[in-house]
Design a protein that fits this description.
Structural class: alpha+beta
Number of helices: 5
Largest sheet: 9 strands, antiparallel
Helix content: 10-25%
Distance between the termini: 33 Å
Number of strands: 13
Length: 229
């Protein structure tokens, strides 16, 4: 009997370790339990450094800048942002899109079939003009509004080179990527960052460094380190 209790105790301890927040990169001191309703008002701002490594920040809405419903079927919201930049190019005509519980890269049927999982995610993309002439339409990230983790949900499936810059032309769901022998829903890959209560977005070095690697940039990560909650 003691041996049985011993094994049960070992299993219990292991399960605690498996699901411990110590296994993720977010500091234990961070509070992921702030209200999910913030994401309905927060506006996403994206900038890119000389290597096209993105940085994200959520900011408060204003009287003239806020999410406006653009398509009720896809739960698409839109707002016009300030000009940004990517590498040596400025990005004008910035428009940000938010999808509340609807993956814009999935079919309508796939969204319906996965409605329970999708309802906890907000998806983001932007359109704009790179250098005033290059049409951009890029996915950004998906945010789990419950845990506040950030995920990759889209990958380029068609690209073109314009003035020496590789520009994604068409995107597909990251679920279609077989990575390290696995094919998983986007939210079962590793998160690439997390959102803090003040709206700052912490992107993990593994994600940022991937943009320096032409083969692995935009690709999801899967190290069996993170546990989806």
């Amino acid at each position: 009997m003691r041996r049985i209790f011993f094994y049960i105790a070992i299993i219990f301890i292991n399960s605690l370790l498996l699901f411990s927040k110590e296994t993720v990169e977010r500091p234990v001191s961070d509070n992921p339990n702030f209200s999910s309703s913030k994401f309905k008002d927060w506006l996403l701002v994206a900038t890119f450094d000389k290597n096209n490594v993105p940085s994200f920040q959520f900011i408060d809405k204003t009287e003239d800048k806020y999410w406006e419903l653009n398509d009720s079927d896809t739960k698409e919201y839109i707002y016009s942002g300030k000009n940004s930049k990517a590498g040596i190019f400025f990005i004008s005509s910035m428009k940000y899109y938010q999808y509340r519980g609807y993956n814009p890269l999935y079919t309508a049927k796939r969204n319906r079939d996965n409605a329970d999982a999708m309802k906890r995610f907000y998806f983001y993309r932007f359109t704009g003009k790179g250098g005033g002439i290059i049409s951009l339409d890029n996915t950004l990230v998906a945010v789990d509004i419950y845990t506040k983790y950030v995920y990759i949900y889209g990958i380029p499936v068609e690209e073109d080179t314009v003035f020496g810059v590789e520009v994604p032309l068409r995107w597909g769901p990251s679920d279609t990527v077989v990575y390290k022998g696995s094919l998983l829903p986007f939210y079962e890959y590793d998160p690439v960052g997390h959102v803090n209560e003040d709206g700052t977005v912490v992107l993990y070095p593994s994600y940022q460094n991937s943009f320096l690697d032409k083969v692995n940039r935009y690709q999801p990560f899967y190290n069996k380190k993170y546990i989806y909650r």
